[in-house]
TrEMBL record:
Residues 52-72 are annotated as: Disordered. This is Oxidoreductase. Transmembrane segments: none annotated. It comes from the Bacteria.
Length: 466
């Protein structure tokens, strides 16, 4: 039997209304010494408070349902482009920060003006036929979609990744792969091995006659222990014949792009680019309880259930190994590749060539910092400084060097804060396709307008402060 009192009947509600109405109409001050009146006023205030709380919850739930139906949300039933429904409670635009209540059919976190611009840019392209592009970190997320956009624009693409077989499977599953798969070459490369980076650049110079686009997309933000990669590495060791024919073709000639690197012994391993991820290098690298076998996160990556990760590290918590790895991948490897590939850029017959360094908000001096992950902030700031310093040198050869912040399209936090963010209704405003569109905007816009940008940082398709 419920302890909740029944809702008052019509007679009781009418009597309560009459009492409250009389109090409102009374011109004289209410007597403060009457305890019954004081209790009545207190209860009336609580009723109003509860009603407002219920209304806010109802509005929040309704808005969440509307936003879940926006096209950017995975698995959503998209709204019709003409619908643009009204939110009950205004939200702040991710880009311009202005409040908005009319929701775009695709984006649920951008005001209509910014959403329209981003939607056009999301679908932007250019004619890249006859151009050769190099993309580092092309297996998943923004790198995967950057490679796809380049291929669909007509470019020949060389993409690097620690796990080229897994990348080949992913690309081969694309419905239009038959149209561009012959123009994609996937190469195994771990950017932490800087000597291997230099060997790869030398080998690339022998394999292609020109380079027109270089996207330094690979980054290490969250370091993961060997257990996270165990299944990926095992699949890299499967015979190439186990791959679909189209996927295997993307790996043809992979061994020609560099020499073998010893991992645990004196002889080089053909899988070195994957095997390096299995080496325990710091305390905690032997843990494996937080990586359920075969479990996949919503972004397509393997599931990581750790309660802490690199994103929450303070200065004193960053190990020497992680500090060096982050700088090698995020800053030093792009520097080495740019230096080594300049002759290939110069060899191109096309007028303008492009080098895009994928940066992040963490690297901006202009923004506030949380006091966490100082090592990733340092590396991205160093990448930005390279662009700002070297752009004029490259522009002299009509190689236009820029940095791009791809925006917020993934969660880097460990599992508990990430779960709290989702449970509270938090939403990531962009996706990996948006990130790729932002990364390639200096290329597409530079080609289409004939006025390439150089030596600047782009954020939300606009120049931003360093």
């Amino acid at each position: 039997m419920s302890d909740t009192p029944p809702i008052p009947d019509a007679r009781e509600l009418s009597a309560a209304r009459d009492v409250l109405s009389a109090l409102v109409r009374t011109p004289d001050p209410w007597p403060t010494h009457n305890p019954v009146l004081a209790e009545l006023v207190r209860l009336a205030a609580r009723v109003v408070q509860c009603d407002r709380k219920h209304q806010r919850a109802t509005e929040k739930h309704r808005d969440a349902e509307l936003r879940d139906r926006s096209s950017i949300r995975a698995g959503a039933s998209p709204l019709a482009p003409a619908a643009d429904p009204l939110l009950a409670r205004p939200a702040a635009c991710y880009v311009c920060k202005a409040p908005f209540d009319r929701m775009h059919h695709f984006y649920d976190s951008l005001c209509p003006t910014c959403a329209d611009r981003n939607f056009v840019k999301r679908n932007q392209s250019a004619d890249l036929r006859g151009r050769v592009a190099l993309v580092t970190g092309g297996r998943v997320k923004s790198g995967f979609h950057t490679v796809l956009k380049l291929l669909r624009a007509g470019a020949d693409v060389v993409a690097t990744t620690r796990f080229p077989r897994d990348a080949a499977r992913r690309f081969a599953r694309e419905p239009d792969a038959i149209e561009w798969s012959a123009r994609l070459r996937l190469v195994g490369l771990d950017l932490r091995a800087l000597t291997a980076v230099e060997r790869f650049a030398a080998a690339l110079s022998e394999r292609v006659t020109q380079l027109d686009v270089f996207v330094a997309n690979a980054a290490q933000t969250v370091r993961r222990p060997p257990a996270y990669y165990r299944a990926l590495v095992a699949r890299e060791r499967e015979p190439i014949a186990s791959l679909p024919v189209r996927a295997a073709a993307m790996l043809a000639g992979e061994s020609d792009f560099g020499t073998l690197v010893p991992v645990t012994g004196a002889s080089g391993s053909p899988y070195w680019h994957a095997d390096l991820s299995l080496l325990p290098l710091i305390p905690g690298d032997d843990e494996d309880a937080c990586f359920p076998s075969g479990a996949v996160a919503p972004d397509g990556e393997l599931l990581d259930l750790r309660t802490e990760n690199s994103w929450g590290l303070a200065h004193a918590d960053v190990t020497t190994v992680e500090l060096l790895e982050v700088h090698a991948v995020n800053c030093l490897a792009p520097f080495l590749l740019l230096r080594a590939l300049l002759p290939l850029f110069r060899a191109g017959s096309l007028r303008d060539r492009f080098a895009v360094m994928v940066s992040a908000a963490e690297g901006q001096f202009a923004g506030e910092k949380t006091g966490r992950h100082p090592h990733t902030n340092m590396a991205k700031a160093g990448l930005n400084m390279m662009v700002r310093t070297s752009a004029a040198e490259f522009a002299a050869d009509r190689v236009f060097l820029t940095a791009v912040d791809p925006g917020w399209f993934s969660v880097q936090a460990a599992a508990p804060p990430a779960d709290r963010f989702a449970a509270s209704g938090g939403r990531i405003p962009l996706d990996a396709v948006d990130a790729a569109a932002r990364i390639l905007d200096p290329v597409f816009t530079g080609i289409e307008t004939g006025r390439p940008a150089s030596g600047v940082l782009f954020k939300d398709y606009h120049e931003a402060a360093w």
